[in-house]
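REQUEST ID: PR-0412
SUBMITTED BY: lab tech R.K.
PRIORITY: routine
TASK: structure prediction, single protein chain
INPUT:
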Amino acid sequence: MKIKLLLSFLVFFIGITTASASFPVKRAAKTVENTTNITTDTVDVEMTSPAVMKRKDKTTAILLWVFLGGFAAHRWYLGSPIGWNILFILTAGFFFVGWVIDGIDIITDKYPGL
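STATUS: complete
OUTPUT:
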């Protein structure tokens, strides 16, 4: 019993420590003009996680759509909201119509995340 509790705590701890922010983080940068004149102008720098910066592969999205589309694999891969993905699974791809629309959007590069 203690081993199960320890393992579950370890898995939880690893999951928490490896999680990264998936939202933009604004940082302020200070600029220096001369050695005698220091300004404190702030510049907004938008920091995003590596997952947001990376463009998703269209071929992978199409293959996931064809073979695992009923499980919303393409939607998980392209970063759709979790609630919509679960609804997609429970309604059999929004009654098959949503699955077809997703495929058309992926092929024509109009799906958000591509």
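NOTES: The mean pLDDT is 78.
REVIEWED BY: pending
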